[in-house]
Design goal:
Order of helices and strands: EEEEHEHHEEEHHHH
Largest sheet: 5 strands, antiparallel
Number of helices: 7
Structural class: alpha+beta
Strand content: 5-15%
CATH superfamily of one domain: Winged helix-like DNA-binding domain superfamily/Winged helix DNA-binding domain
Shape: elongated
Strand order of the largest sheet: 4-3-2-1-8
Number of strands: 8
Helix content: 40-55%
Oligomer: single chain
CATH topology of one domain: Arc Repressor Mutant, subunit A
Length: 236
């Protein structure tokens, strides 16, 4: 992006050609890219007739396969909507039947300095590299000769940040919270859980074996009952 921005001002509106923004009294107004480009063409030729052929050549190109007439009419409608303009009594865009359009409002062109880049602080509290290096150089420049070296850059940036919360392991919470008394009996430590793991595995395996035996017993019982019924029905 250039060091300056070119603006086109008319009435309460302002077109920023570099950032491609339309503002009304300083408030950003939404306008689709194609209608924005058409508005720039018309405002850049204020007081002059811009023919439909010139608009087609500049915005749609020679080899266009879309409905040019419908597309241009749609763009003009969107422009008039955001400018609150009236086709019958135009303040900004005048329609010249079968010729084109003319921007009738006076336009002032002006170049302004581009806004300075913003340095955004990250959630971790560490700032951008450029600011980090700047602070490090300032600290080195202000450090007297023979004194201790300048502090580390990371410490300089984060020295005013709140200290992160300490993370205490689960198995040590009882010892930290109640250092002067015995640990409660209802607290299960990680070592106890590890000791119970083999017992849990063996219990699950026993349940699986029992389930298999139970299923086979049901199958055998069903076969016996079916055989008995068959014999009762077909005995001589």
């Amino acid at each position: 992006m250039s060091a300056t921005h070119k603006l086109l001002r008319f009435g309460v509106f302002e077109l920023n050609l570099d950032s491609e923004e339309l503002r009304k009294s300083g408030t950003l107004v939404k306008l689709a890219p194609q209608p924005f480009r058409l508005l720039v063409v018309l405002a850049s030729h204020a007081g002059l007739v811009v023919t439909r052929e010139e608009i087609k050549e500049q915005l749609w190109g020679e080899e266009t396969y879309v409905d040019f007439e419908q597309g241009m009419n749609h763009c003009i409608k969107q422009i008039r909507t955001v400018l609150n303009d009236n086709a019958d009594h135009p303040v900004y865009v005048e329609t010249l039947p079968r010729r084109g359009y003319r921007f009738v409002a006076p336009v002032v062109s002006k170049n302004v300095p581009a806004p300075a880049a913003k340095i955004i602080k990250s959630l971790s509290g560490i700032q951008s590299d450029s600011l980090l290096l700047q602070r490090l150089e300032e600290a080195r420049a202000t450090t007297p000769a023979g004194s201790a070296a300048a502090p580390d850059a990371k410490v300089m940036v984060t020295k005013n940040e709140p200290e992160p919360s300490r993370v205490i392991p689960f198995h040590s919470t009882t010892a930290v919270g109640r250092a002067d008394g015995p640990a409660p009996a209802n607290k299960i430590t990680s070592s106890a859980a590890a000791a119970l793991a083999p017992e849990i595995v063996r219990l699950r395996r026993s349940l699986v074996r029992f389930h298999r035996v139970f299923v086979w017993a049901i199958v055998v019982l069903v076969l016996l009952v079916a055989g008995a019924l068959y014999w009762q029905l077909h005995r001589p």
